[in-house]
Each structure stands twice: as C-alpha cells, then as structure tokens.
Amino acid sequence: MYYCCAITDKGVRPHNEDALLIHRTVLTEGVTECELSKPFLLAVADGVSGELSGEVASSACLQMLREVSFSSQTNMERKLFSIHETLMKLGKKQEDKRNMQTTLCAIGVDEHDMLHSMNVGDSRLYRYRNEQLFQLSRDQSLVQVLYEEGAISEEERQHHINRNIIFPVLGNLTELPDFDVKKHHEKIEYGDILLLCSDGLSDYVSKTEMEKILAMPEPLVRRLQLLTELAFQHHCADNITIITLIRLPQKRKHKK
Predict the structure, then answer these.
(1) Which CATH number is correct for 2-134+168-247, 3.30.390.50, 3.90.1720.10, 3.30.43.10, 3.60.40.10?
(2) 49 and 37 in contact (C-beta within 8 Å)?
(3) Res 236 pLDDT > 60
(4) How far apart are CA 130 and CA 122, in angstroms?
(5) pTM of the predicted model as reported, rounded to 2 decimal places
(6) How far lies 66's CA from each of 91, 189, 210, 214, 234, in Å?
(7) Distance of CA 154 to the CA centre of its chain
(8) ω before 39 within 30° of 0 (cis)?
(9) Which of 32, 50, 178, 191 has the fewest CB atoms lying closer than 10 Å?
C-alpha cells in the first residue's frame, strides 16, 4: 500500500491552469489524501501560460490519462502521443482553444511495485531520501540546456529571466514533444518521499528550503501546505500543485 497527499492552489491567478491526477481522480483545486493499491498513476499538468485555454489543456490531458489501464506492459510513450494528438485536434477545432498546451510530469507504480516516470516540459519529479532532495526528472527548457552547458549556475537556473521558455509540450501544433518515459527498475524505498510539482513551487522555493520543510515532524499534508505558503511568501505569481507519495510498511499478520 501507498499513502498519497496533494495540494493545488490557484494563488493570485484568476483561475488554476494546473491540475493533478491521483489514480482515477482529477483535481483542480484543494487538498486531498488517500491510500492507494498498485498499480496506479499520479500526475501534475501545468497549462502553458501565454497560450489559450491552458486550464482546459491540463484538465483534458489528465482526464485522458486517468483512463489508461496502467501496468508494467503499458506503452506509455504511445499513450502520451495519443493524448498529444487529441489535444492538437481540440486546439484546431475551436479558435478559443487554438494551440492549447500543457506540461506533464507523472509516475506510475506497476503491479510489481516498480517505479516508472513520464515527463514533458518543466514540471518536476523529486525524490527525498536521507534528508536530501534529488531531481529525478529533467527540465525540457532553455535554462536547463544553459545549465548543462555550464553557462549558468544552479542558483542562476532558478532565477534566470528565461526560465519559463520550455520546449514543445502536449498539444503543440507545430512540433512533436519529447516524451521522456523511463522504467526505473527499482521500487520506492520505505522512508522515501516522491514529490511531483509544477514550477509554481520549484521557481520560488529553493531545494534547501524544500528539504528543511520536508524534514519537519509535521504530517505530510501539512508540510505541503507549508511549502505552498512559503512560495506565496516569496511572491509566487503562479499556480502551485504538489503531489507526494510514500510507501507504507506491510501490516504484520497476527497468528491465531
């Protein structure tokens, strides 16, 4: 069994272009927590600002993703391509939704408890282990390329003026996204926290600040609220969405 908690908040924006998926449930506002049995999918989608109907794109993407019967044999790259094509068609049919786009960062836990990840864009997947936070996903962005080339530092990457320039994502009418789909060939370890988030969190709260809050003895759902509050204290002007997942210890069977 697994424990999942999540939060999505529109912040100062008039509406929420973020959405989250927990197994079969799509949420666009509020806080939730639940226990999950394998297999399942979790995902964060962030509608692209500057394009029409970002909130429609993110929600529609996750509505389609929740219909996927995920297992170790599922071809997730093919599924994501199908979602991309459907968003393109929707964006072509209606002028008010033309070129609507969304990022997607997702994980799957299959029937063998093995971890899978999927990423398109700059929403992120982290693993928190031994009080340290490690980014498992790779940002598909201009700033990431500059960082990998050594042109900017880690700190500059977080505050760079071009940090919102991302590569083609789901729904893009002119270019095919790069579907980064991985089988990690490992299980989630007891004590690990997997964290998925939109850039409303990662652009405004540093890795060190995240580690400090995740190390607190507060309930996990309260730690997510503290992360969100800190981002807004740092003048976050974006929506914020966070999902966390931990693996629960197996209950011992008592002998009669």
Answers:
(1) 3.60.40.10
(2) no
(3) yes
(4) 25
(5) 0.93
(6) 20, 25, 29, 28, 33
(7) 21
(8) yes
(9) 50
